[in-house]
Amino acid sequence: METHKSYGRLRWNPVSAREAQHLDKQGASSPALQESKFLQNLPLPSTVYDPKQPITKKLKDLINNYAYGGAFQSTISTVCQQRIPELDRIHNLYQFYYYIDTLATWMPGLRVWEWQDNIYHERTDYLRLTQFYYYFNQPELVALQSPVDPATGANLTPLSLWLREFAVEWGQFLDTPESAKYLESYKFGPEYAYQDYNGGENGIKNYKTFNEWFSRTFKDIDRQRPVAQPDDPRIIAFPAESTFVGQWAITTPAGEPMPAESSIVVKHIEWPIPELLKDSAYARDFEGGIFVHSFLNVYDYHRQHAPASGKILEAKFIPGQVYLDVKLEVLDTAEERANVNSNLASVVNPCRYLDAQDATGYQFVQCRGLFVLETAIGKIAILPIGMAQVSSVVFVKPGTQELIRLTEEERKGKSYDEQVALINQKARKEVVGKTVSKGEMISAFLFGGSDIVMVFQRQSNVNITTTTGVHYPVRSQYAYSNIAQLLKF
């Protein structure tokens, strides 16, 4: 029951050659404030360029110290020859360093154009993510990263560590006032539904940073996203605004002659549940249960809510990889362009575009959060999975909408692992042991697309009532438990 998410399959709006040329000017007659043309000051291929951003300097040192120059140059040449818009201008490592410098301080927004009484927009935030990770999906660079594998994927190579550090650095920039410069452009993307969130018709400009906007909250969630059967503990609610991917049965541990942990099997690969839950004291409780997986798009509501009422037994952040599987899609004919499956209106999509896929499995080695919730139907493990730049899974203080984050002073002088230890210490103090109601806010993502996974116990006898490939509102019905007798928590 596996599917792939397709962030980039957008409605094609046929344009004439003249119109295409107009659109390429990127905002010449735009009704919205526009960013400067991306890479507009890209050095010539013959120019030597020294990185300016600290994270780019670290990449240059890594490439030099590990003799990765040949692999990077081969990757850059391959991508350049594929005629992908914008990336076809990058020919060598010097230009690639300029690209990373530019991306590290890129201010998110939508590019918007007006033409003959029509308004078009480009999902530029999504585009920047897919462009970056497409380079790191090329074979030469994949070989230098930790594999997406349950046995060895947790041990990060120097390049995988750099990718995670880049995600953190970009995330910190998106906490700055500078990152909010183009937020008003999101009014031109109907799928972002800015009018449904706090801020209202004109209040989008009141968000102080991009991450504030990205983690926005509904004006009245009880009216806009009511909880499915709030008084019926057998009804499990969607923990996130998301599209259902599928469900998998979890095996029970096997002994001789072929020992195996409890796991799900995807494409003939065993993904152990103890690895997903990473040292959880409750990992064995889910043997023989059910694993379910949904994904969030970049424009979705990015806060998560309790799928059932219960007591939080465990809450922690699990460090891992930052990964995004990106493919090049080519629409060669008008018929192919017309058949692109999307309900998003007025989105400009070139004939050659990058599209992120979401197979099940990588979640076991990705940065993720973990809640173990004790409920009337048994234990439920809830895992917000960070994807790409969404390596930041942020806990919410129960009973509030307050994000539990480290201050700049708390981060100062601490390594990544030390910061993870400190945030988990805060989670144990402020989250573990608290009781939450079904539909209550429990966590949030910062920037990008992401996944949500839940794991149910066998005794819960859960029947998933959702349909693969369908997008569901947060707090709507996800499943029904046929447990013989409700439990006390």
UniProtKB/TrEMBL annotation:
GO biological process, one term: phospholipid biosynthetic process
Domain of life of the native organism: Bacteria
Pfam families documented for this protein: PS_Dcarbxylase
Keywords annotated in UniProt: Decarboxylase, Lyase, Pyruvate, Zymogen
Any one GO MF annotation of this record: phosphatidylserine decarboxylase activity
PANTHER family documented for this protein: PHOSPHATIDYLSERINE DECARBOXYLASE
Protein name (Swiss-Prot/TrEMBL): Phosphatidylserine decarboxylase
Gene source species: Candidatus Nitrosoglobus terrae
